[in-house]
Fold this sequence. Notes:
Blueprint: H1 2-76, H2 83-97, E1 101-106, E2 122-132, H3 134-145, E3 151-159, E4 164-174, E5 191-196, E6 202-205
Antiparallel strand pairs: 1-2, 1-5, 2-4, 3-4, 5-6
Helix pairs in contact: 2-3
Amino acid sequence: MNRRALLFGGIAALLILLLWYFMLWSPRNSDLSEAKARTEAATLRIADLNLQLERLKKAQAEQPIKLARLSGLRAAIPDNPQLAEFILDTNSAANSSGIDFLSVAPSPPAPPAPGSAPGTPSQINIGLSVTGGYFQVLDFMNRLEAMPRIVVVDTLNLSGNPVISAQITARMFVSGLPPEALTPAPTVPTTSTTISTGAPTTATSAPTNATPASTGGQP
């Protein structure tokens, strides 16, 4: 009788244990696992958001630098020819250098070469004639190179002593022009601007065989 009671007691205890496991412990353990998984996912999400926040803060801090670089790039390669501004800047450089005579002859913007990558800037060919002392001409070339706008000097021919006559061929660039605004660059400049120290700037249309004449008496 005692053995049977013990057996029934053991069975009852086992049933109670099973009921406790399936009704209380197993659901609670499942809830704990899901909560742990949600916590880990939330932790990863917070870390990702913090990383994005740091990137945004860094980008915001670098914004003035990027804007300054963009402004410099637009000055170096503007979206329109800005020939008048270039001539004024060149005239200012010549006056600051003590140049006796300056002639600037730009050509119309030329389209990029066939097969060029999209967005390749158009090219403006420039002819410059400069007359002055050796150091004045050298200072003018340095000022020309230091201009915000990119000016690539292709050739420089010097003659004369002590008065130097410099013949310069150069290029500058322009972006954003529509195709209809571009024309093939002529072999000879179609316009010229002659500047002499102490005299006002003049702009004239010149024939293809015209040679700028100095108003200051220099060759």
